[in-house]
Design brief:
The chain has 549 residues and is of the alpha/beta class. The chain has three domains: 4-208, Rossmann fold (3-Layer(aba) Sandwich); 216-407, P-loop containing nucleotide triphosphate hydrolases (Rossmann fold); 412-514, Arc Repressor Mutant, subunit A (Orthogonal Bundle), CATH 1.10.10.10. The chain is 39% helix and 13% strand. The protein is globular and about 75 Å long.
Length: 549
């Protein structure tokens, strides 16, 4: 039931206008708010700048009691509370930046019922010392709901997994009647399932907005010896705010200092700086005292600065999911913005080293697969937006014209025959192997594993000798990005055929591949004969017959 406090407004739109000044809702905001007001659990996935916060902030103002917002970062809490306070909304936070007297004062205000929104980190929320206060608050004032912000932190499959988030299921056991809302900007289908399971959400409605950010331009540039000069030239052409991401604290400090020496107003941000310095540097960036923040991934989660015009990854992102999140901090106002990745293999070695430090072998496997997806993205000649959206299970029917591959396309060749060979080999290998193995079979490798498995006796063995391993890799990558074959994501990347794979095998759709400059101009070298019905039969140059499904 909608709380009595909502009766003062004839509609949700009038409440939206009264509290926040907006005339209408965006994306799935209204439906999500209605679910929350009806005391239902829900999961909201909206892109950065899509208005996730409103999905719990407006219901908090229309219901009795206080809404508890679980937030992972001190800076994020402070930013949200400041924005609400400036809007005349009573909100507060409890975190380690406060002394004992400040904590007691804020707890007193909460117990009086003067506060509508409380932001708190999961570590404090679940601590033994805080739990009794939370219980008293529920008994005397009432907890209207729990909002789990940055909910992808719950999932080990997410890009920013935090083990303490896994314990939030205790909220469901202790407060079974209090509804729970999980919110994030980035979550694949697997991560969404994990969020629901880990938080014990009950019959949760899911509201997933499009991941497409059409105002963002994506590009990948080579990270060569002149990379700093190229970076300096790029940022000098942009007079508006920007963020530069680096892998290490040392790189952040070095790059920020070098930019300062070249007359660029830039400040560093990373976890090695004191809380005071980090907060001050963030404040100066948000208020436009400086134009650039050079940061590790510790910066930016939930930061409310809509006019960032450029996000540059000076070093390689670790996952496509984290890249989407970090690049998405550009252009939150809907205006055009630019996202650049500088790609070099030295960074791959660094990330691999970091992966090797992980204690869990399964975690290493997942991280290596995620890194390979980033490398594939960087090396791909396919529309970059298509690759990103495909990662989240969304399709883009036409090229975006807002990335370097679409604006400056490579030569395109018809590789339908090669694609049929490749997919036939996946089928003949019973959809149990990854791309490297498939390519080895196609090229007639004499590796011991190929021989031990008897794959040298497959009809597809050696039918791709006329193409290099790199050419087959380009094709395999293109098939994945175009959705013409699937790949498992559990750390053991196994290729699987899908409905579109069989359309390719039956020559119902053709496969066009944009080739790197080094591989273009090779043309098609083979032809195949197609049978009626189930697929291909082997011809002297063509692929093997595709098995019936």
């Amino acid at each position: 039931m909608i709380s009595a406090t909502s009766s003062a407004f004839p509609s949700l739109e009038s409440a939206l206008k009264h509290f926040f000044g907006y005339d209408q809702f965006r994306f799935h905001q209204r439906a999500a708010i209605e679910a929350v007001l009806k005391q239902h659990d829900a999961l909201v996935v909206m892109p950065t700048g899509g208005g996730k916060s409103l999905c719990y902030q407006l219901p908090a103002l229309l219901r009795l009691g206080v809404t508890i917002v679980v937030s992972p970062l001190i800076a994020l809490m402070q930013d949200q509370v400041d924005a609400l306070s400036n809007n005349g909304i009573t909100a507060t936070y409890l975190n380690s930046s406060l002394d004992v007297l400040e904590v007691r004062s804020r707890e007193y205000d909460l117990m009086k019922g003067d506060i509508k929104l409380l932001y708190v980190a999961p570590e404090r929320l679940l601590s033994e010392g805080f739990w009794p206060f939370l219980t008293r608050l529920h008994q005397q004032v009432g907890i209207a709901g729990f909002a789990i912000d940055e909910a992808h932190c719950v999932s080990e499959w997410g890009h920013d997994f935090r083990p303490e988030y896994r314990q939030l299921h205790r909220l469901r056991a202790a407060f079974p009647t209090v509804p729970m809302l999980a919110l994030t900007a980035t979550a694949t289908e697997r991560v969404r399932q994990d969020i629901v399971q880990q938080l014990r959400l009950q019959n949760a409605a899911q509201f997933v907005a499009s991941f497409n950010r059409p105002n963002l331009y994506y590009e990948v540039r080579p990270k060569e010896r002149t990379v700093y000069r190229d970076l300096l030239q790029q940022i000098r052409t942009v007079s508006r705010p920007g963020i530069i991401y680096c892998l290490s604290r040392k790189r952040v400090d070095e790059l920020a200092l070098r930019l300062q020496q070249d007359g660029i107003a830039a400040l560093p941000y990373h976890a090695g700086l004191s809380d005071t310095v980090r907060s001050e540097n963030q404040r100066r960036f948000i208020r436009d005292d400086v134009r650039l923040i050079v940061a590790t991934i510790a910066f930016g989660m939930g930061i409310n600065k809509p006019d960032v015009r450029v996000v540059i990854h000076y070093d390689l992102p670790r996952t496509l999911e984290s890249y989407y999140q970090e690049s998405g901090r550009a252009g939150r106002d809907g205006e055009p913005a630019h996202c650049t990745v500088y790609f070099g293999y030295a960074d791959v070695a660094i990330v691999n080293y970091l992966i090797d430090q992980k204690p869990d072998e399964q975690e290493k496997n997942i991280a290596r697969q995620q890194l390979r997806q980033v490398i594939d993205y960087a090396e791909s000649t396919v529309c970059r937006r298509q690759i990103q959206l495909s990662y989240f299970g969304e399709t883009l029917s036409v090229a975006c014209d807002r990335c370097d591959n679409c604006r400056h396309p490579r030569p395109v060749e018809d590789w339908t025959i090669e694609a049929q060979k490749f997919l036939s080999c996946v089928a003949r290998c019973r959809e149990r192997f990854g791309m490297t193995h498939i390519i080895d079979v196609l090229r007639g490798s004499q590796k011991k594993r190929i021989l031990d498995l008897g794959h040298d006796r497959l009809s597809t063995y050696g039918i791709g000798k006329d193409r290099s391993a790199e050419e087959w890799k380009v094709l395999g990558r293109s098939l994945l990005h175009q959705g013409l074959v699937d790949e498992t994501t559990d750390g053991f990347p196994v290729l699987r055929l899908n409905a579109q794979s069989w359309q390719v095998l039956r020559k119902q759709i053709s496969v066009q591949v944009a080739l790197p400059d080094s591989l273009s101009g090779t043309g098609n070298r083979t032809e195949a004969t197609v049978t009626e019905g189930s697929g291909l039969r082997r011809s002297p140059q063509g692929p093997a017959e595709a098995p019936r499904r």
